[in-house]
Write a structure and sequence with these properties.
Layout lengths: L2 H21 L2 H4 L4 H19 L1 H9 L2 H6 L7 H9 L5 H23 L4 H32 L14 H22 L6
Helix pairs in contact: 3-4, 3-9, 6-7, 7-8, 8-9
C-alpha cells in the first residue's frame, strides 16, 4: 500500500475513533490525569512514527512546509473558547489565555504560509511563529491539565463533541507538527 494511502487511512480511522470517543463521552469516564496522558501518548505515537518509519518521514518531509503551518489555522477554535467562557461553560484561566493565544497563532499562520518572503526571511519568520505556537499550545495543555486535576467540572466542555476532538485528535497533531517544523527548519537547505 502506498504511504500516502496508508497515512490517509490511519488519519481517517483515528478521526472516526476520536468522534466515537466524543459521542460516547469516554473522556468523562477517565480519571483526570488520563486526559493529558492521552494527549502526550498520541503525540508520542505521531512523533515515533515520524522518526522511526522512514517512508512516513520521507512523505511528511516532502509536504510543503506551508501545509504543516496551515494546519494551525484550526487554532481559530480559540474564538469558541472565548464564547464558551462568556456562557460560563469554560473557566477564565483556560478559555481567555488559551483562546487569545490560539487566535494569535492561527492568525500569524496565514502570513507565515502566504506572505511573499525570501527563503531566509520565511525561515526566520516560521521559526519565530513556531516557537510562539509551541509555547502557546504547551501552556494550554498544562493549564487544562492543572484545572482538570483541581476540579474537572468546569473543564467538562472539553469532554464532549466538538471540543473532545482537541485532546483526542487535534492537539496531538498540532504539537507533533510543531516538532516536525523545527526538525525540517534545522536541516540545511537542499541544493536546487
Amino acid at each position: 500500500m502506498p504511504i500516502a494511502l496508508a497515512v490517509r487511512l490511519v488519519f481517517w480511522l483515528w478521526f472516526a475513533a476520536a468522534v466515537a470517543a466524543g459521542q460516547q463521552l469516554w473522556l468523562q469516564r477517565l480519571p483526570p490525569p488520563a486526559v493529558p496522558a492521552l494527549v502526550l501518548g498520541l503525540t508520542a505515537l505521531l512523533l515515533a512514527g515520524y522518526f522511526r518509519v522512514a517512508a512516513l518521514r520521507a512523505w511528511v518531509d516532502a509536504l510543503d512546509l506551508r501545509l504543516l503551518v496551515l494546519l494551525h489555522v484550526s487554532r481559530f477554535v480559540g474564538i469558541y473558547f472565548l464564547v464558551l467562557y462568556r456562557r460560563g461553560e469554560l473557566p477564565h484561566d483556560f478559555a481567555v489565555p488559551g483562546g487569545i493565544g490560539d487566535i494569535v497563532v492561527a492568525t500569524l499562520a496565514l502570513p507565515v504560509a502566504f506572505a511573499p518572503l525570501a527563503a531566509a526571511a520565511r525561515q526566520r519568520f516560521t521559526n519565530i511563529w513556531n516557537v510562539v505556537g509551541l509555547v502557546d499550545i504547551l501552556l494550554v495543555v498544562a493549564t487544562a491539565a492543572r484545572l482538570n486535576l483541581t476540579d474537572p467540572l468546569p473543564m467538562r466542555a472539553l469532554t464532549r463533541l466538538p471540543l473532545s476532538l482537541l485532546p483526542t485528535f487535534l492537539v496531538p497533531l498540532i504539537i507533533a507538527t510543531h516538532v516536525v517544523i523545527f526538525v525540517r527548519l534545522a536541516r540545511p537547505p537542499r541544493a536546487a
